[in-house]
Design goal:
The chain has 3 helices and 28 strands. The chain is mainly beta. The strands form 7 sheets. Strands 19, 20, 21, 22 and 23 form a 5-stranded antiparallel β-sheet that branches. Strands 3-2-1-28 form a 4-stranded antiparallel β-sheet. A 4-stranded antiparallel β-sheet has the order 7-8-9-10, with no helix packed on it. The chain is globular and about 55 Å long.
């Protein structure tokens, strides 16, 4: 009897091992298959305080545009906030919304995964992630639109889904970037870029000749920053600034007049980082006394460190921003003459030739490319 039991014990163990190996050998299903995710996702901001925000999806392989994509993926649930910024990190996509202020988390299929976070996220502007944390620039509930004394960085714990702490950063932080354990914050109400050591949260400043809004990180980890002329802080030294992140010095300024004061995607680099495209825009009064936002796109050559003598693309009515498809290098320009009417996404080749125009949602601001 003991021999029989031993035989069945060995047989059972062998079957268990074989079963285990069989399960391990089975290919794991991708919860976010590329054929469903791949595409450009467009943020349509809408009308501040009055809603109208939406997400459009453009499948550039099939040339198929789907407006109100977020609603489609969420049982027709509307976005009640105006979406200010969109950011992807691992298998999560974060939407920063205004009025009401919140952080919305979706998966790569744009299905909302948790309830929108509203606590300690007041007038969020942009975000960047590192490790287990998402850092969000916030202008605060009591934004004074002058010194921005109460603005801060919200440190959001990705594991617990809560804001672990808020770090005071006066000056209206907007665009953020992380390099070598340091958080760089463009300040929209102070002529400086803030540098925060993530280990001890010590903050230093890089003085700039104008306020700033967003960064582009080069392959070496150095930063290009947009320098702006604004109503609250005028300056005639606008353009691209180049920050050496080893020395934390503003090494160069490449002049460009009229750099856009719009948000989210006023500049973008191409896929091999040989060109940077910068949106310039200003309000021009027409013959009937109406003020219209008219802009252009300038091309910065990274090798020669110069802008072209003429705009790369001119006469963009309602110019909002630019994104570059990292797969094919095509340039997506966003325009919206009205905050309530449909906006446009214009797609250009690398020679600046218009390939197609797509009708998207109100006030398109940027595109996020997922694969």
């Amino acid at each position: 009897m003991k021999k029989l039991l031993s035989y069945f014990s060995v047989l059972f163990l062998a079957l268990a091992v074989l079963s285990s190996c069989s399960k391990d050998d089975e290919p794991k299903q991708d919860p976010f298959p590329s054929e469903l995710v791949r595409g450009a996702y467009i943020v349509n901001y809408g009308d501040y305080g009055s809603g109208g925000a939406s997400i459009s999806k453009y499948d550039y392989d099939s040339d198929k545009l789907t407006n109100f994509y977020y609603q489609q993926q969420n049982d027709e649930l509307e976005l009640l906030s105006n979406i200010q910024y969109m950011y992807q990190y691992d298998d999560q996509v974060f939407l920063l919304g205004n009025m009401p202020d919140q952080l919305i988390t979706v998966n790569p299929l744009f299905e909302q995964t948790v309830n929108g976070l509203t606590e300690q996220i007041e007038k969020p502007r942009a975000c960047v992630a590192s490790g287990d944390y998402l850092y969000v620039s916030c202008w605060s509930e009591n934004a004074d639109w002058d010194l921005m004394a109460d603005s801060y960085i919200a440190k959001y714990n990705l594991t617990t889904g809560t804001v672990e702490e808020t770090i005071s950063l006066p000056g209206g932080p907007e665009g953020l970037e992380i390099v070598n354990g340091k958080l760089y914050a463009a300040l929209n109400f102070k002529d400086s870029v803030a540098v925060m050591n993530l280990d001890d949260q010590a903050i230093s400043y890089i003085v700039t000749p104008a306020v700033s809004s967003y960064f582009i990180k080069d392959p070496k980890g150095n930063l290009y920053v947009s320098l702006l002329n604004t109503y609250s802080d005028p300056s005639d030294q606008t353009g691209l600034g180049y920050i050496n992140t080893v020395t934390n010095e503003l090494e160069e300024i490449y002049p460009l007049s009229g750099v856009s004061t719009e948000y989210a995607s006023i500049m973008a680099a191409n896929n091999d980082f040989t060109k940077i495209y910068v949106t310039a825009a200003s309000y021009v009064q027409d013959g009937e006394g109406e003020w219209n936002l008219t802009g252009s796109l300038s091309e910065f050559d990274v090798a020669t460190k110069t802008f072209g003598s003429d705009p790369f693309i001119s006469n963009i009515s309602g110019a909002k921003g630019v994104s570059v498809n990292p797969v094919d290098g095509k340039i997506y320009v966003f325009a919206g003459e009205s905050v309530t009417g449909a906006g446009l996404m214009k797609i250009y080749n690398t020679a600046g030739e218009l390939l197609s125009t797509k009708t998207v949602g109100a006030s398109p601001a940027m595109a996020l490319f997922l694969d």
